[in-house]
């Protein structure tokens, strides 16, 4: 039996690392740390051992192909409307509009990032 959550890290494929870093910085306010890991360019999302949740990276290289198909990552946001507005302002597209789940008390939405990936949003407490 697992003693922790099963997912510990993610990588979002990108074609243009500076463009993608700028997009996520504008939309979410993230500050990235750039690294080269296994000969691939990475922009690491913020991470703190003392906070809950996982972290990951924007990843550029021949094995990283942006897509709207496959796994969907959900980013937490305090204001889904504001976040979606920033997505539009920075050239992204809304793929699934803000939708309420009144049974569990949250909103979700999905957007296409600057690289063509499907990314989801989650806002608790509707």
TrEMBL record:
SUPFAM superfamilies: Glyoxalase/Bleomycin resistance protein/Dihydroxybiphenyl dioxygenase. InterPro entries: Anthracycline_SecMetBiosynth, Glyas_Bleomycin-R_OHBP_Dase, Glyas_Fos-R_dOase_dom, VOC_core. Pfam families: Glyoxalase (PF00903). Coiled coil: none annotated. It comes from the Bacteria. Residues 6-124 form the VOC domain. This is VOC family protein.
């Amino acid at each position: 039996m697992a003693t922790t959550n099963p997912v510990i890290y993610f990588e979002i494929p990108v074609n243009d690392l500076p463009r993608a870093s700028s997009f996520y910085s504008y939309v979410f306010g993230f500050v990235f740390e750039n690294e080269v890991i296994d000969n691939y360019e990475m922009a690491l999302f913020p991470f703190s051992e003392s906070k809950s949740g996982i972290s990951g990276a924007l990843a550029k290289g021949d094995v990283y192909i942006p897509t709207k198909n496959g796994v969907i990552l959900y980013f937490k946001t305090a204001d889904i409307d504001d976040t979606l507005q920033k997505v539009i302002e920075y050239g992204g597209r809304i793929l699934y509009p803000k939708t309420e789940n009144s049974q569990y008390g949250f909103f979700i939405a999905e957007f296409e990032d600057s690289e063509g990936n499907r990314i989801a949003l989650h806002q608790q407490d509707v």
